[in-house]
Amino acid sequence: MRDVARELGVSPTTVSEAWRSLTRAGAIQTRGRSGTFVATPGGPRQGWRYAQMGAHAVVSRDLSTGVPDHDLLPDLTDALKRLGDGRMTAGYLDAPVLPALEEVLRERWPFPPERLTVVDGALDALDRVIAAVVRFGDHVIVENPAFPPLLDLLQAVGATVLGVPMDAHGMRPDRLHAVLDGHPAVAVFLQPRAHNPTGVSMTAERAAALGAVLREFPAVTVVEDDHVGDIATAPPVSLGTHLPERTVHVASYSKSHGPDLRLAAIGGPAGVVAAVADRRHLGPGWSSRLLQAVLLDLLTDPTAIAQVADAREAYAARRAALLSRLHDRGVTATAADGINLWMAVDDQQIALVSLAAHGIAVAPGGPFCVTPLDSDHVRVTAGLVADGYDDLADALASAAILDSRGSGPRTRQHPRGWR
Q1: Which residue, among 205, 196, 246, has the nearest Cα to 223 in the 3D structure?
Q2: Are 367 and 149 in contact (CB under 8 A)?
Q3: Cα(395)–Cα(70) distance, rounded to whole angstroms?
Q4: Beta bridge partners of 376
Q5: Same CATH fold, 90-301 and 50-70+304-400?
Q6: What are phi and psi of 52, to 5 degrees?
Q7: Nearest to residue 247, comparing CAs of 370, 101, 106, 110?
Q8: Where is the HTH gntR-type domain (predicted)?
Q9: Contact 162/189 with Cβ under 8 angstroms?
Q10: CATH code for residues 50-70+304-400
Q11: For 229, phi and psi rounded to 5 degrees?
Q12: C-alpha 239: how far from chain center
């Protein structure tokens, strides 16, 4: 490091920071006294957090997926019948969004966006927004815990990720301010509703408080991932109400209307959204206008709207039923909104093995954590649980709480929260 610093005319501290950034990005490997080497490219799934989330054994009940219940999705049959002959593309440079769909999206948006476009799902949206606003070595702020694929996307571009703790109302403003004071970040990523994995939804008061903090740091772009959409029980909340000129809001329709629609909308500052739309012209060009027409029909058809409302109530009932039974058994868990339940466990690995022995798969909590929390956790897709609550709660409680010998259930006297 001293030799490189001398050659470049910079301080050894600068070289050390560059070394750390390259190491985090997987570009180099430090091998003690042997030196530092350019890393050999790994396999496509090596080291990715998302690859650690799914079931790795044959189970009878897979609650690790985070997907919606197919039976609660709106029926597409009538929407498909109403599409006509399906000829919706006049040329390759047509607007990427159907005009009628854009009109409906703007009416539903939580703040007036300068520009809107449609992409192939929430992760595609996040990937393309990251490409537009984040560069190698940039500091980026996320909630802790956060969605593992988002962390993978940020790792892939070589960003330095900083986690900010949450409470029952969302990201903590005081801790956000402290992190921004010490690190010049370019973006902060938030899940305003049904946070994955905790289920927390941000309140309007919390959005205002976070907006007040971010006004002191005008270089920070806000990126919101409203991944649950219309099946969330909480009302839509956005920092775009306070910072519209630098808030990029992503609205996904996978969990509410169907994963196979592969559609999400991006709305916000014209500079960011135009960069996304222009770059897509050199790749996919646009998201299927046939699928856009299906989504438009589902968003405006009274029968489909009623089906989504029924799904929202069903998910709320399922979360409440499982959560109450876990609390009765002394288990600490949160599931305020959405389809997931975030459960504290004494030992993550033992919990996973114990549940697998019962034929149950859940997602480990480790991949969600930017930095370790006060206790281990697992994520349970509570939205897929329509019956058998007592038996499932018994299995989850047995896996979560170890007795003094390290196995078997006991009553937790001092539950540890996820914050």
Answers
A1: 246
A2: no
A3: 25
A4: 345
A5: no
A6: -90, -5
A7: 110
A8: 1-41
A9: no
A10: 3.90.1150.10
A11: 65, -130
A12: 17
Supply the CATH classification number for the domain 90-301.
3.40.640.10
How far is Cα 361 from Cα 283, in angstroms, rounded to an integer?
Answer: 37
- How many Å apart are CA 137 and CA 120, to the nearest integer? 27
- Report which residue type is found at 46: Q
Q: Residue by residue, what is the 3-state secondary structure of 170-222?
A: EECHHHHHHHHHHCCEEEEEECCCCCCCCCCCCCHHHHHHHHHHHHCCCCCEE
Alpha carbon distance 249, 113 (integer Å): 9
Alpha helices in 221-343 (DSSP H): 254-257, 270-280, 289-300, 302-328
Cis peptide before 259 (omega within 30 of 0): no
CA 256 to chain centre: 15
pLDDT per residue of the chain (419 residues) written in tens, 0 to 9: 888 889 989 898 888 888 877 776 677 877 777 788 887 765 555 568 888 887 676 789 999 999 999 999 999 999 988 887 777 888 888 899 999 999 999 999 999 999 999 999 999 999 999 999 999 989 999 999 999 999 999 999 999 999 999 999 999 999 999 999 999 999 999 999 999 999 999 999 999 999 999 999 999 999 999 999 999 999 999 999 999 999 999 999 999 999 999 999 999 999 999 999 999 999 999 999 999 999 999 999 999 999 999 999 999 999 999 999 999 999 999 999 999 999 999 999 999 999 999 999 999 999 999 999 999 999 999 999 999 999 999 999 999 998 644 445 444 443 444 43
CA atoms within 13 A of residue 145's CA, in its CB half-sphere:
32
Q: How far apart are CA 97 and CA 89, in angstroms?
A: 11
Tokens of 4: 């490189």
Pairing of strands 376-380, 36-38: unpaired
Domain ranges of the chain: 2-38, 50-70+304-400, 90-301
Closest to 153 in 3D by CA, of 194, 187, 202: 187
Cα 231 → chain centroid? 16
- As a residue count, the chain comes to 419
